Amino acid sequence: MPRPILPSLLTTTSSIITPFSASFIMATSSEQAVGGRPRGPSISIPPIEPSAYPSAVVVVTQAASFPGLHVVRELLSLKAHVRAVVASQDEANDVADAFVGMGQALRILLVPDPWVPGRFDDIIKGSSHLVHFVSPRECSYHGNAELDMLTPAVEGSCSILQSAIRAGGLEWVALVSSVTALGDYRLSPTEDLTRQAAGKVRGAGEAHMLFAACNAMAEQACWQIWETHRLQSDKPDVFGMTSLLPVNICGPEVVPRAMRDDNLKLFHAVQGRYMGGEDRGFWVDVRDVAMAACEALFGDISATNGRRYILSAGQAWLPELGAMIRMEKGIPLPDIDISLASSSLRTSASTLSAAPGSDTHATSSEPATPTDPHTLHNLDVGPSIHDLEVVYGSLDFAVRDTFDQLRGTEWGERLGIVDRRGGNGRNNRSSMPTEGEGRP
């Protein structure tokens, strides 16, 4: 049964509010959208169910990111009020462009320096829930590990949790980390788990190790803050917290303009870059990540509090997925002979789980050895299916939906896509309701 939601404390008296710690931008109608941008088919919103949450006020960090936009989309479909936190004006424009006409249901908050103590105080006040992406994505690395990744991840996560404690009234926090936080991100097996070691990135090719380190340290910092607050607080309403650890995230964009994050691997697979070796990895549909985040906020409080959940639809072979899309889209790639059998999707039980705030390395039946965090095996997704009620979609559909979006875009032209198939089962959803259609 969904947990009851406290009455909303959010009131809106003007379209633009500018307190000292953040710029509040109200996304109202088309004047907030950015015109003239090339775009493919957008992802529409499923019908609003009667059991929605119109009194929930949810803060979402990194709202303009690939998974962040989907989280915002799912929350809006539940009639929740969303405070979307972004780091730049361009990101603010992206969110406004994705959700035109949402009126007072969506507020966009510009926070360029989230690591500054107290920066989230005004943002958290009056909110009931928080979805926090604990680390910037790999693409945020531009040569300075500390400034680009580590500080925003660790200090930024500490800042928002401490603001939540000061504000009071928050019901639930869903952290979105990464399964890479369970791996060994060290560049050398002799190095300790230290901030200094994590910053020893020698180029963009090692950014995935930095991403893993940021997730591990930021998530651990969040659990330590939460546990300390829980033990020291004399109040019975200490907010609950759940952590989600997705694997490689694929799927369509809310508003397609470019391939980014893990979707780039699929793009490169279609180009034929992954033709040798195993090139296997675990994948999950971005829409399932967003739904899991909403379930963590509004689902069974007794089952999820203080727990971490791996999100994975299974394992897939990149050359196989690339060949499937080339065949369906009429993309030529001469002199390549690849089996087009169905994607190999697997899940199996294991002990790959860690207690909140404890050592973030994975535990399994095999001896622990330093390893690339993207090569974890035997992921146990049973708890996410049972506790979060995640119904994982087919990776075939996720990949097809991703490339169906590219028609008429620059990225589709770069591949020479010729559509040879009809619609599929996941992208045919009803349109986003406007302020006058189902909005509180």
Automatic annotation (TrEMBL):
Keyword Hydrolase attached: no
Residue segments, region Disordered: 350-380, 417-440
GO molecular function: oxidoreductase activity, acting on the CH-OH group of donors, NAD or NADP as acceptor
Keywords: Oxidoreductase
Key word Oxidoreductase present: yes
Signal peptide range: none
Sequence similarity: Belongs to the NAD(P)-dependent epimerase/dehydratase family. Dihydroflavonol-4-reductase subfamily.
Name the record gives this protein: 3-beta hydroxysteroid dehydrogenase/isomerase domain-containing protein
